[in-house]
Amino acid sequence: MTAALLFEQFLNGLQFGLMLFLMSAGLTLVFGVMGLINLAHGSLFMIGAFFCAAAAGLTGNFWLGLAAGMAAAAAAGALIEVTVMRRLYTRDHLDQVLATFALILILSEGTKILFGPFPLYLDVPPLLTGTVDLGLTPYPLYRLALIVAGIGVALGLWLLIGRTRLGIRIRAGENDREMIAALGVNIRALYTVVFALGAALAGLAGALVGAVQSVQVGMGEPVLILAFVVIVIGGIGSIRGAMVGALLVGVIDTMGRFLLPQVFALFLDPSKASGAGAALASILVYLLMALILVIRPKGLFPVHA
Amino acid sequence: MPDKRREYALNAVLALGLLLVPLWAYWAGSPFTITVFTRIAIFALAAVGLNIALGLGGMVSFGHAVYFGVGGYVAGIAAQHAFNGETFLGIAGANQMLIIWPVAMIAAGLLAAVIGAFSLRTSGIFFIMITLAFAQMVYYFAISWPTYGGEDGLPIYVRNTFPGLNTMRPWNLFILCWCLLMLAIGAFALMRASRFGAALMAIRQNPDRVAAVGISPFGIKLAAFVISAMITGLAGALMADLSRFASPAAMAWTMSGELIVIIILGGTGRLFGPVAGAAVLVGFEVIFGGMTEHWRLWLGLVLLLTVLFARGGIVTLIAGRERLG
Amino acid sequence: MADPVLSLSHLSKSFGALKATDDVSLTLMPGEIHALIGPNGAGKSTLIGQISGRIAPDAGTITFKGRDITGLSVAQRARLGLGRSFQISSLIPEYSARRNVMLGLQARQGHSFRFLKPVMRDRRLRDEAEAILTKVGLAGRASVPSAELSHGERRLLEIAVALALEPACFLLDEPMAGMGAEGVGALVDFLRSLKQQAPILLIEHDMDAVFALADRLSVLVYGRIIASGSVEEIRNDPAVREAYLGDSE
Description:
The complex is a heterotrimer. Chain B has helices at residues 2-28, 31-56, 65-84, 97-119, 124-144, 170-193, 195-205, 207-212, 217-243, 253-266, 273-291, 295-309, 313-319, and strands spanning 87-88, 91-92, 154-155, 245-246. In chain B, 74% of the residues lie in helices and 2% in strands. In chain B, the strands form two sheets. In chain B, strands 1-2 form a two-stranded antiparallel sheet. In chain B, strands 3-4 form a two-stranded antiparallel ribbon. Chain B is globular. By secondary structure, chain B is an all-alpha fold. Chain B has 13 helices and four strands. By secondary structure, chain C is an alpha/beta fold. Chain C has nine helices and ten strands. In chain C, the strands form two sheets. Chain C has a six-stranded mixed β-sheet, with helices on both faces. Chain C has a four-stranded antiparallel β-sheet with strand order 2-1-4-5, with helices on one face. In chain C, helix 6 (181-194) links the parallel strand 7 and strand 8. In chain C, helix 3 packs across helix 4. At the A-B interface, helix 4, helix 9 and helix 11 of A face helix 5, helix 10 and helix 12 of B.
């Protein structure tokens, strides 16, 4: 184990965390403003990846694919919001869970019908291939770009929420839904916009990640569940919490998977060490979640304190 | 009351239908049908467990499959150790159902006690997400731990035994499952009518009011959660015996979703709701699965429409809403 | 001089910069109705929250039947005999009036971990519940789900459930709220008879009812008790007139 390897894994964790942030931010925004738990968020991630891969494959241009992926996810999000989600805002959480679970089934099968049952492949754009020398270690340029993109989106969100009228409405909506309706804000439009924004973020994450992992049906759900862990840790409704939580989860998960088998190898024989290390690493973030819940039951940055 | 009589009639139809169709299949020599109905009975049993937590207690446990899976793994691990003579923490393996069932229930109950202790301090969306997360945790642990099959799960080469019955014969296994299901439904009915049930259903509707009369909601909810997990765990052990395989997929969050789907399709909190729901879910897969590989799309649509427009499920559609009196 | 049943001692609670409860001390003596009045925003809900156990005070103690209950949970205090009604009716909506009261009785008896005997067939529990409903005048509506009761009936049911606990004191949060003149009159008579059973800490806005019922009055303004005494003393207190009654007169 060298410093170079450690640094590389840390960067991987950062990259993973930032992509997770894109997912979590959308999820927490939707819950904060509309009080809606949306299991189909993972499907929007998947849709972004699929449309990006398909468009990039057709046109040979990754950037067109990226735009297509985001647009498709946002459009799907808007469509879902208008047809299904609208009827769920006043329902209890169980209904929301079930309806969005149904959407997962529909969207997954729909994707299979549209794109076939086999995974699609998405190539890293030529502009971003190769590695960059970061002093300690060479690092893939694309992954570095993902980190930059993630930070860029975070800044953009911060500006949006803090400095624009839409942001003011979002923050007001998080605090008191009935009030902003009384104040004349067009709630329906606001909700559609917020939902589509969250969907676009998920689609972006899916499209970006699609170049480093395979694009297949079901790719969204593991990320979705981790996003849940992130917002439980960070505090439901808080974008700042989503960022902190996502970085924590990303880094701890990645470093854990790398380090734990080696730590165990110090005092167990190699065959047992890798198994035990992998098993503990796989549950590390959940243990982290449990620990945080004990100290801060509402997460690190609860919005409705 | 006409509603109650209609519900009793529906319950009888479901109970007897679940028994008579496989019986006919037995005489007609169609073991496949018996196996399908055994799956219905087992899923119904798992859902009866969830119905205690969700239907009566209002606890949306999105991680109940973990108890289903744990039950299966108890059966699988016990069978593996009985097969190769090793011990689990000093305890020898077993392949007797009468031993495995209580152990599976206890294991599931203990896990539920731990998860419940954490999760039940929260409510609403937190509770849903946290139960999901803990279930995932156990799932990932199960597929990473190499000794017990990892991702591949554990085969059960020889089905566990029950005194006096050849459990390898489909009809025998079915009748065991059916009897356990009826017993569990009976226990559910007793619990719902009892003081415990009265407190639990009150907590679902207004926990602050229940605390204000002096009943601590946490204790009741935890007890209900643990009992609920035990019944689902028993179902998991039966499923492992049916498929002769303890599968990590039984713990996956998709299974948790399916259990909740069964409850909603059948009718949340209704006595025979789990039976109706399980029949629909398994029936969908068997009937539509034969027609198209995209049967899940149709299931999703039916589920979506049910949630939006037929919220009370099949039992409510046929027998009307429940009056708690 | 008898001991107070309920005693608040230097209770304080702040939410950030807002002092919702500012060094409040108060007693409830046996056999009395002690009314707590004050303008909106005075901090009555926060005070009720601390007495019932929903909110933890920053400082001060609450003593009930000679025992320090400051650290006890809502359910624990209820079990000790602290009965309350809610400002906004909080009942079990799908349960009938009878069943709501039976829940209170069941809690009183302390046996909720019973799994076998059907509770609705428990004759004694049903009869007791019906007796209590008769006391508050709801006997005829025993089988109606509480969600279908009228507003006034729900206020009465709240009190019935509190009665089922055989409490050592009543904490009634605006029981008259939303009731018509006739209902208020009947409730005033009822509460007057109730105080023999257990003293009442009555939070109310309806001044006529308060002046008719209260043995003692305390006035809460901006989290502080600015005056406490008999009805006559409070009516003539200049600080009170200015802060509260002055505006309406």
